[in-house]
Design a protein that fits this description.
This protein has 203 residues and is of the alpha+beta class. Helices cover 53% and strands 11% of the residues.
């Protein structure tokens, strides 16, 4: 495929994705993106999103095929060997709370995923810019940069009873508080260790 055709495809795909008003943009990294296999990495990413789907939609809707609307992108970075993923999402929920829940879910998804405190999942700046960034390795990977096994688009969900969603989110919040507390303890321990190392070096 020549440059003109590739550029046309990339623009069409970017415009198509940007037509959705994405509210979340995230980066999913591993403890060692250079050694993890694509098969293992994709399985972890699917598990991560399945956990969020069940938390926000409930098991019945998930079993019926409903998912949080999202597009997931596979990338390898400037080295072409550091596997990681980006995603855009429209969870139809409080965006800031979803970011926290998603960071906790990635922390807990596997021993191969990086910690809560090092995971970046945030409010999307614009649908166009996030879609463009997600596709910036299209030139190397072509259509394979779109991780279809974890992507779900144009989702319309039946309404559930508010009390059911409230119970799920309260349970999720309680679980997330434990994950965040563990992250804060790791940060505090790292700061103490750095301080001790600095003091030792000056003596």
């Amino acid at each position: 495929m020549n440059y003109v055709e590739l550029n046309k495809q990339c623009k069409e795909l970017t415009d198509w994705l940007a037509a959705t008003d994405w509210t979340i943009f995230g980066t999913l990294k591993f403890t060692n993106g250079y050694s993890i296999s694509e098969h293992k990495a994709e399985a972890i990413v699917r598990k991560f999103f399945n956990n969020l789907d069940r938390a926000y939609l409930g098991r019945n809707l998930v079993d019926a095929g409903h998912r949080i609307e999202r597009a997931v992108f596979k990338q390898f970075g400037s080295s072409s060997s550091n596997l990681h993923f980006h995603f855009v999402a429209k969870p139809n929920a409080n965006a800031e709370q979803f970011c926290i829940a998603a960071k906790c879910a990635w922390d807990e998804a596997s021993s191969f995923t990086i910690d809560y405190e090092h995971t970046v999942i945030e409010l999307a700046r614009s649908a166009q810019s996030t879609s463009s960034y997600g596709l910036h390795e299209f030139w190397k990977l072509g259509a394979d940069t779109l991780c279809l096994c974890a992507t779900h688009l144009h989702q319309q969900h039946p309404k559930t009873k508010p009390i059911q969603k409230l119970r799920r989110l309260l349970q999720l919040q309680e679980k997330n508080e434990c994950t965040i507390e563990a992250a804060l303890q790791r940060v505090a321990f790292a700061k103490r260790r750095k301080k001790i190392a600095t003091q030792t070096a000056t003596h």
